[in-house]
Design goal:
With 192 residues, this protein is mainly beta. 8% of the residues lie in helices and 45% in strands.
């Protein structure tokens, strides 16, 4: 069985010389169904996310911790994954928050935590992360939390049941089929 890796959106990220931020998006090439980059945003620095190529990323098999093979200074020099645009007209004490837009590679899509997952008959849950093959970075499962607060469970949707990721994640499954999937511990899929 191929070794798997979980990319959890919201995971803390460390460089070789200190903490650098958290994963705010996992970037996917939808045609090839592979993860190409992570977007890591420095702590308390909205709109300054950096596009981190996977060759700089190491994810602990058991812990899920993300470590980058670069220093904080090298991290700061990585390509920007976001641009912050400030609107004019903010008064002192009434600061308008910036509008942040993605600057991802052409044809690639950033998957965000909490992004809606749609069954064929309506919304079913929100994205929690992705599981990939460690060697090829091919996405094998989409992790989502489904249900209401009193009945939430984490479900792993096989990539074969995903028909699109452009406007949220669209599935080929109905709500009932997703609800009938067993709750999953991602560690069982990863084989840690």
């Amino acid at each position: 069985m191929a070794e798997k890796i979980q990319f959890t959106i919201g995971a803390d990220v460390n460089c070789t010389d200190g903490h650098c931020g958290e994963v705010i998006r996992v970037v996917v090439n939808p045609a090839a169904e592979v993860v190409t980059h992570l977007v890591v945003e420095p702590t308390h620095r909205e709109g300054l996310g950096r596009l981190v190529p996977l060759d700089l990323v190491d994810v602990g098999a058991a812990s899920g911790d993300v470590t980058l093979h670069c220093s904080l200074e090298e991290f700061a020099q990585l390509e920007a994954a976001e641009e912050a645009h400030f609107l004019p007209g903010g008064n002192v004490g009434n600061i308008t928050p910036p509008i942040v837009t993605d600057t991802l590679p052409a044809g690639e899509i950033g998957i965000r935590r909490g992004q809606q997952v749609h069954a064929t008959d309506g919304g079913i849950g929100r994205v929690h992360g992705l599981i990939t093959d460690r060697a090829t970075h091919h996405v094998t499962h989409v992790l989502l939390e489904e249900g209401h607060l009193w009945g939430k469970k984490e479900v792993a949707i096989p990539i074969g049941a995903v028909k699109g990721i452009e406007e949220g994640i669209q599935l080929t499954l109905t709500k009932r089929e997703v609800q009938d999937l067993p709750a999953v511990d991602p560690d069982d899929l990863i084989g840690s």
